[in-house]
Design brief:
Distance between the termini: 24 Å
Number of helices: 4
Helix content: 25-40%
CATH topology: Spore Coat Polysaccharide Biosynthesis Protein SpsA, Chain A
CATH superfamily: Spore Coat Polysaccharide Biosynthesis Protein SpsA, Chain A
Protein name: Nucleotidyl transferase domain-containing protein
Oligomer: single chain
Radius of gyration: 16 Å
InterPro entries: Mannose-1P_guanyltransferase (IPR050486), NTP_transferase_dom (IPR005835), Nucleotide-diphossugar_trans (IPR029044)
Shape: globular
Number of strands: 6
Largest sheet: 4 strands, parallel
Order of helices and strands: EEEHEHEHEH
Pfam families: NTP_transferase
Structural class: alpha/beta
Length: 151
């Protein structure tokens, strides 16, 4: 099992904070946001990580290197230009040969990824998504689910 972290965006909505630093490397306390995410992934039993990077990727690569200081193995899927979700996953394709977890590099979670992975395997699901219920009037980017949790 590998985790793919999408960390190649420009972070334009957070400018000027992201002019010299990629969004996942913005500090939360004394550590970059991405460090918390990597530690959460490791805590949930996933040790192999593919980081999809682009914009200012050297900053991320210099900080995390091969991941050994953080108890994980990191490989880098580098794209020359920032790509959307599908494009970033395409760059990671050569590193993935089995089931994988995909998360955005600017996110923090507190649920059990370990339990989610176990449930995914038990149900032999093709895709499993973690969603948060939120009432909204926005009509885009919304996922409708049935009472049984199916999309």
């Amino acid at each position: 099992m590998k985790a793919v972290i999408l960390a190649g965006g420009l972070g334009t909505r957070l400018r000027p904070l992201t002019n010299k630093k990629p969004k996942p490397m913005l500090p939360l306390g004394k550590k970059p946001l991405l460090e918390y995410l990597i530690k959460w992934i490791r805590k949930n039993g996933v040790k192999d990580i593919v980081l999809c990077v682009s914009y200012l990727h050297e900053t991320i690569e210099k900080y995390f290197e091969d991941g050994s200081k953080f108890g994980v193995n990191i490989e880098y899927a580098v794209s020359r230009k920032p790509l959307a979700t599908a494009g970033q996953l395409k760059t990671a394709q050569k590193f993935i040969d089995d089931t994988f977890v995909c998360v955005y590099g600017d996110s923090l979670f507190n649920f059990s990824l370990r339990n989610m992975i176990a449930d995914h395997k038990k149900k032999k699901s093709f895709i499993t998504m973690s969603l948060y219920e939120h009432k909204t009037s926005i009509k885009y980017g919304v996922i409708d689910t049935k009472n049984n949790g199916k999309v």
